[in-house]
Each structure stands twice: as C-alpha cells, then as structure tokens.
Specification:
Its EC number is 2.7.13.3. InterPro entries: GAF, GAF-like_dom_sf, HATPase_C_sf, HATPase_dom, His_kinase_dom, HisK_dim/P_dom, HisK_dim/P_sf, PAS-like_dom_sf. This is histidine kinase. It contains 21 helices and 24 strands. About 35% of the residues are buried. It is an alpha+beta fold. Strands 3-2-1-6-5-4 form a six-stranded antiparallel sheet, sandwiched between helices. A six-stranded antiparallel sheet has the order 14-13-12-17-16-15. Strand 12 and strand 13 form a beta hairpin.
Length: about 700
C-alpha cells in the first residue's frame, strides 16, 4: 500500500482514523506501520501542518517506538511529567502533551505498527477512549495483512465492522450509485432504518414531495452533498421528533475516491450534541436572568418578575411559566405572575391557589426540591391542578429560596416529553436562586429605606409633635406659677390646655411603646376565639357616638359572625385606627364602608372612604412609622404618623397582612386587612414572616 498517494486503502485508513479520533475525543489520530527501522504514516486525522512532510520517521525518534519496544499499549496523561518518556523524546514533541497508543499486529501476532491518538493538553484517558483505540488497532490489521487467506480477510472485516458498530457516533456510507452500504447502530438510532438497494438521491426527491414534506432523516442530506463532492465539517443539524425536544447533531461528511479521483461513494458521521447544546442554552438563560435582576434597582419588582418568567419561557422553549408566592395569611400558594407563548396552551380553570403539598408547585414548596412531571396526564400532583392538560405533556416546579427558606415556586410547562437530568435541574435551581436573591435584595432595600425614613420622621416628630405640646404645657405652667392671683376661670382654662397636651403626648408615647414592645416580643398577643364582625360593629357604633367633627355615615357589611383567633383589644385598636384614618380623609356627606368577608383559611376586613386619593408613591410608605402624606401636611390634618404603623404591627403579630389601594372613580382609598381564621400553628418551614420580612409587602 502506498502510504501518501491516495487510493482506496489510504482513504479507508484516513476514515478509520477519523472515527477513532471522534470516539476517543482526541484532535489527532494516526496509524504508523513498521518499514525496517522506519515508521511509515499510512492514515491520519487532524494531522498538524508541520507533520505533513514527516511521512516516515525513525522508530527511535517517536513515541510510537516505545509502544513497539514494549509490545503493549502506552497510556500517557502528560508527556512532560511521565518518567517513561525519554528526555530527548519530550524535547522533540511538537506541542503534544497526552498520548494513547496501541500496537498493530499482523496476522501472526507480531507487532507491525502503532495506532495512536494524541492531545495538545494533559488529560485523563477514559476506559471508552482506550477501547476505541484498541479496536482501531485491531482493525488496522487489515492494512498489514498483505496476501492472506479469505478467512483472515473476513476476520479483519468483521473486526472493522464491530469497531464501527460499537462507536457511540453514528456512521453511514453509500456507494457511488447512492446505495446505502453501511449504517451502524448509533446512526440507526438517530435516523431510523434507511432504505437499502436504491439510490438515496431519488428516494429523497420522492419523499420531499410526499407529506409530511421535508421530513428526511438527517443523514441523507449530508450524504448527498458528499456524493456531489462537498466536504462537511461540524455542520449543525436540528432534528425534530414528535413530542420530543429537538436534537442537535454535528455532521462530518466527505466523498470517498479511488487513486484516480473517481467516486467510490460517501461517508457521514454524526455526534449527538443535544446535551451540550442544551447546557449552553440553559447557562445563557441563567446569565441573562442574573443580569436582568441585577442591572436595575429602580424598576418595580413586579415588572421585573413578569419580564423574568417571560424570558425563561422564551429562551428555554417552555409553553408557559408561572411564579407562585406564599400567602402567609392563608398558608397557601397564590399564582402571582403567568406567561404563555402565542399558543396559549394552559388549560382553562387552573386553580389560583394551592395548599401546602398540593399540585406540582405545592409539592415543590413542601419538599423544597425541584419536582419534575414527565407525564402531566398521569402525575398525581399535576392532576390536582387539572385533569386534562391538552397538548401540554411535562412540567417542572422549582422552589424559590430566600436563604434556607422557600418563599415562592417557579413552574414551567412544556409540550415536549421532558426527561429530567442533573444539568437542567441544577441550572433551573440556579435561576430560581437568582429570583430569590432579587426578592431578598428588594426586601432589604425597602427595610433600609424605611429605617432611613423613620429616623428622619422621628426627628421631625420630636421637633414638632412633641415639642409643640411641651411648649404649651411649660408656658401655661409658668404663667400659673408666676401669677398666684390668677383668676380661677383662667387657671381652669390653662389646666385644661395642659391636660389636653399631656394627653396628646401620652398617645404618642403609648403608640411608640406598643410598636416597639410588639416588634421586640415584650408585648404578647392574647389570642382567643373572637367575632371580628361584632368587633367592627361595636367600634363603628362607638365611633359614631364620640365623633361629630365631620358629616359622614358608616356602612357595615358582612356576616353575622366572623369567628377567628385574635386579640380582641388589639384588633379593636386596629379597627379604630382604620376608621379614624378613613374619617380624616373622607369628604363631607360621604359614606365609610367597612366590609368583613371570610375566605377559607383567611378572614378579610376592608375599610373604604370617598375623598382625596393618596398617590401611589405615598401608599407604599403609608404603614411606615412617622410617615405622613403630603396632603396631610399641606391641609394640616392632625396626626403623628403612628396609627397605621401600629395597626400594621398588630396585624403582623397576628400573622396577617395590611395593604392600601386607591380608586379614581369615585376617588378614595381602601385599606385591606387579611387575618388567619384558625388558631396559629407551627407553619411549614419558613413560611411565617417576621415583622421585618413582611414590611415590603405591607407597603404595597
């Protein structure tokens, strides 16, 4: 065989080295045969340009010489650090660092050459790499057999066929007439059974005009191009399969020619790089989400979260995504955001809330682990959400942590049959962690802003709300001391002013002590069975009796009884504060509406008035200590900015929430309180927020 002048043996050797390099995941593969004291290169893949002229080298000057001298395989992870490699051989290396060589033996078992792969970086050769090179060396026996018996030729061919069939990469070949002559098992797994005995070109043309048009096995196109003389390297091919995510293949194809350049056929190899491609897309999505949630600290959190779940859906090809948050009052999950692609495939009537352990999101909340459903139609948890999922087939639910506590769940739905793997699970968990970190940053920022505001407002409170009554008290006390003959009527009037201002100071101090005491735990909530409806009616009746400063009417709506566990005295304080706030901002002649409703595990109280609208930016600070709206300051509405802050503290100590909303038609404000109906019990891990945790939510 002439080693470097073309011909079918040379082409076969080169193709064999190509397959061996791909199977061993090495950039270079070569086979040398002994020719006296020389090693003659007879086949190669990825040969560096500087080696193109070194077609024959002395046995003693090459690493292959070590394999021949020892008569056994040589596995070298790092040439520069392996004591078996002579210093002069290491010095002559042209960039190679790792080497794996097996002896090629003739039909009598004598060493006749070396089959080897090498890499330009140190590496650890895996067992499957060793197997690939070993089988390649055995197949190379065909190149040194010379005239041999038909039995030995057949044995060599079987060895070559066994090597090709054992490869994890797909291999297919056709002759010059376009007829399939070889297809290994890996190729059949990727392409199915290709027709034999007919011209694949004619078969492809006929198939393209039959429905479904354009659905050709991925091997056919590259084979046809190679038959036409084209060489392909690393061509990406996306393969669509029913109900499965698309597969990404890398194809190499080239024509096979004889010594005179005539066509002998074509060969194509395929590597399935779907997992590698998927991992790259997942990582890109994770980086995009991280940038999205970290670049802007001024955009509203809801806007960013909605954009986030849409980005996850689009980049990772989900049909729909959802973000669920934990309602700490009812101890349930509430769907907060939802995104679907243009197909809108989510079934109608999906529940807006799920209990602990219910549905896929509830199970992820319960276990604090990522939950996959390969088949939504049979998954027990998924059937709690919907009996029929239509074209949706699989889903994943990922807990969103803040520290070690689950605060939400990210759910994604797919039209493909998903098969979970460690990489996808880890990256999805990483994306959820970025969302959790974003929520924690926003919570910390809100608390920092509130602390800063409280400090400023505290100074203002001392400067005005406390100093003003103190000034009046001191002034009148001084007048009474300095003038012992002061008329009795004047003295009584001055004492009334002192008492009124002393009472004002007492209210401020009591509220401050109540807030501080409850937040520190020094003042406990005395929970017992109570009727919130009765509490609201009684508070409204008392309010009507003592309040005559404005022409407003009270409208109380709700069930005859609304039984819950709470502190009657503290909740009466809350109702009084809400009614006072509503009256202060109500228009003359308007109605104040207080409504009590029960909603399963939660009881709700809303207090609404008609009057001046509180701007959105101020509503977010309404429950902060000492905060007073610009309207209150401009219109000289009396108050300390402590009433709603005290109400929030009491509600949070009951495990509830308090929020404010405004309407434009008619203009007015509604404050909503939600309280757990049942006796507080130890909640599932981490779902009960502290006062500090709940502060951002309460503010908006």
């Amino acid at each position: 065989m002439d080693s470097r002048h073309g011909g079918s043996p040379q082409a076969a050797a080169d193709h064999l080295m190509t397959l061996m390099a791909q199977s061993a995941q090495a950039p270079v593969a070569m086979v040398h045969l002994l020719d006296g004291e020389q090693l003659r290169l007879v086949g190669a893949y990825g040969l560096p340009p500087q080696w193109a002229s070194a077609l024959s080298v002395p046995v003693s000057s090459a690493l292959a010489g070590l394999v021949i001298a020892q008569g056994r395989p040589m596995v070298i992870g790092d040439i520069t650090a392996d004591a078996r490699v002579p210093t002069e051989a290491s010095a002559r290396a042209m960039g190679e660092r790792a080497y794996l060589g097996y002896p090629v033996r003739d039909v009598d078992g004598a060493v006749a050459g070396v089959c080897a792969v090498l890499d330009y970086r140190p590496r650890l050769w895996r067992p499957d790499h060793l197997t690939a090179v070993d089988q390649g060396a055995q197949a190379c026996t065909a190149f040194v057999a010379g005239p041999c018996s038909a039995a030995r030729t057949d044995e060599a061919q079987r060895l070559l066929a066994a090597l090709l069939h054992s490869l994890q990469i797909g291999v297919a070949a056709c002759d010059a007439a376009g007829r399939l002559v070889f297809s290994n098992q890996a190729n059949q797994n990727l392409n199915g059974e290709l027709p034999e005995g007919i011209d694949l070109r004619a078969w492809a043309r006929q198939k393209l005009v039959q429905p479904p048009a354009g659905m050709l096995p991925p091997a056919v196109g590259p084979l046809m191009r190679a038959l036409a003389g084209e060489r392909l390297h690393g061509t990406e091919i996306m393969v669509e399969r029913p109900q499965q995510r698309p597969s990404m293949l890398l194809a190499d194809a080239e024509p096979v020619t004889d010594a005179d350049g005539g066509s002998l056929g074509a060969v194509v190899t395929f590597q399935d790089v779907t997992h590698r491609h998927s991992a790259a897309v997942l990582k890109d999505c994770e980086l995009t989400i991280r940038r999205l949630l970290s670049d802007s600290e001024i955009r509203p959190a809801d806007e960013l979260l909605q954009e986030t779940i849409g980005t996850i859906g689009r980049m990772l090809d989900w049909a729909a995504t959802e973000f669920w948050t934990i309602d700490e009052v009812g101890t349930v999950l509430l769907r907060r955001f939802q995104w679907t692609d243009e197909r809108k495939l989510l079934p109608p009537g999906l529940p807006e809330r799920l209990g602990h352990g219910q549905g896929m999101p509830g199970r992820a909340w319960q276990t604090s682990e990522t939950v996959w459903a390969t088949d939504l139609s049979t998954d027990t948890a998924a059937r709690v959400q919907a009996v029929g999922w239509g074209p949706l087939r699989s889903a994943v639910a990922v807990p969103v942590p803040i520290g070690s506590v689950t605060r939400g769940v990210l759910a994604c739905y797919s039209t493909y049959t998903e098969h979970p793997d460690d990489v996808r699970t880890a990256v999805m968990a990483g994306i959820a962690a970025h969302i959790g970190q974003f929520l924690e940053r926003r919570r910390g920022s809100a608390l920092s802003d509130e602390l800063e505001h409280s400090r400023d407002e505290y100074i203002a409170l001392v400067g005005h709300e406390i100093r003003t009554p103190l000034t009046s008290i001191l002034s009148y006390a001084a007048m009474m001391v300095d003038d012992p003959d002061l008329p009795t009527g004047d003295r009584v009037e001055m004492l009334q002013v002192v008492r009124r201002n002393t009472g004002r100071l007492q209210v401020i101090i009591d509220k401050l002590l109540d807030i501080a005491g409850m937040q520190s735990g020094d003042i406990a909530i005395d929970s017992q069975r109570m009727d919130l409806s009765a509490t609201v009616r009684a508070a409204a009746a008392a309010f009507r009796t003592r309040f005559t400063g404005k022409d407003v009417t009270f409208d109380i709506d709700g069930p005859d009884e609304a039984i819950l566990w709470g502190d009657p005295r503290r909740l009466t304080q809350v109702v009084d504060e809400l009614l006072t706030n509503a009256v202060d901002w109500a228009d003359d002649g308007s109605r104040i509406i207080a409504t009590v409703t029960t909603d399963g595990p939660a009881t709700q109280l809303t207090v609404s008035n008609t009057g001046q609208v509180i701007p959105a930016a101020e509503r977010e600070q309404l429950f902060q200590r000492f905060f007073r709206t610009q309207g209150a300051l401009t219109n000289a509405v009396p108050g300390t900015g402590l009433g709603l802050s005290l109400a929030r503290t009491i509600i949070e100590q009951h495990g509830g929430t308090i929020t404010a909303t405004s309407d434009d038609d008619p203009p007015g404000t509604t404050i909503t309180v939600r309280l757990p109906t049942d006796r507080p019990a130890p909640p599932p891990d981490g779902i009960r927020a502290t006062t500090a945790d709940a502060a951002p939510g309460a503010a908006g």
